[in-house]
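hey so i finally got around to running the thing on that chain from the lab meeting. sorry it took forever, my laptop kept dying and i had to restart like 3 times. anyway pasting the input first so we r on the same page abt which one it is
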Amino acid sequence: MGKVKDLTGQSFGRLTVVAFVGIRNHKAVWHCTCSCGNEVDTTAKSLVSGSTKSCGCARSEMAKQRAAEMGKRNTTHHGCPRNDPKARRLYQVWSNMKARCLDQNHHAYKIYGGRGITVCAEWLHDFSAFRDWAISAGYDPAAPYGECTLDRIDCDKGYGPDNCRWVNMKVQAENRRSGRAASGQYTKAKKAAPGVTSTEGSRAE
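ok and heres what got predicted. didnt touch it at all, straight out
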């Protein structure tokens, strides 16, 4: 082989070349120190081509990072712990809220999304933002069913921090009746054909 190019003192990734080791299998081998403190021998070709950039610590760190990310994905969904029943309960409230407003196949879409009820941008794709508001607004994860439901203060406006609160089903039902009366929906419902009633307010939000 030809004359060996001196790489002493040069850095390649995390490796700094310290000394020439010799020729092995017709390849120049150099002794290097890694920024992590380890030492390693590698060929000039591996250094120059970029195939070797550390003693192996970089690959190990990347593997640990990928494992951590995989673990996070397996234990959370949109920021909701998969194995926490209380967190899942609030997550279901968030999911149902969006479904009523966005899913045209949802049984309640007609009286929510169908009449212009929307979810604010802050909550739409971020469960964590909704969760933080819920906690600050008095959400009780241990409340009995129907005692802590998501209610829109103004029934004609959408879901957002300024128009939502946590109340029991009785307060929510009264609020809906007041909202229908104010908008004329309550009067129309009373004049509807026998057996036909408004479905809004029949389920807790």
